[in-house]
Inverse folding.
């Protein structure tokens, strides 16, 4: 695997820390640990998404969804089971924590658990101050060396 040093990027830019952090996370990501549990991310609208995580074998009480520091944390821990003897155990119910980094102004609007799937709905809500706005263009006329607005 190749290693990339992003230190020069941090030294040469101001205000692009999020992009550098994202590149650093992607380049240092270990693919083998991110395979459980499987998940889908679907676009449900122009500014809406749904994350669906396969959580077969977990109840609502054993699942946790939290948002901290612009990141969504989905975790689960199976409650202690009574004494059971399995002849074959193919359903993985091991504890996990999965992290999804959220972009600016993306917020979690809800979570549902049905048929072994945990669905988390997200929307982007851009504040009015950051939305584009139209600026009226005025004209000026020169009258005796002074500019006046029309």
């Amino acid at each position: 695997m190749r290693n990339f040093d992003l230190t020069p990027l941090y030294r040469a830019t101001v205000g692009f820390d999020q992009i550098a952090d994202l590149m650093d996370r992607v380049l240092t990501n270990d693919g083998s640990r991110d395979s459980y549990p499987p998940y889908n991310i679907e676009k449900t609208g122009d500014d809406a998404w749904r994350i669906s995580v396969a959580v077969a074998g977990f109840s609502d009480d054993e699942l946790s969804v939290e948002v901290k520091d612009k990141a969504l944390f989905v975790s689960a821990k199976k409650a202690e089971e009574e004494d059971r003897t399995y002849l074959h155990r193919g359903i993985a119910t091991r504890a996990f924590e999965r992290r999804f980094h959220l972009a600016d102004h993306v917020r979690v609007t809800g979570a549902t658990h049905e048929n072994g799937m945990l669905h988390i709905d997200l929307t982007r809500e851009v504040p009015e101050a950051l939305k584009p706005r139209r600026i009226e263009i005025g004209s000026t006329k020169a009258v005796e060396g002074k500019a006046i607005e029309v």
Observations:
- DSSP finds two helices and nine strands in the chain.
- The mean pLDDT is 82.
- The first strand starts at residue 39 and ends at 45.
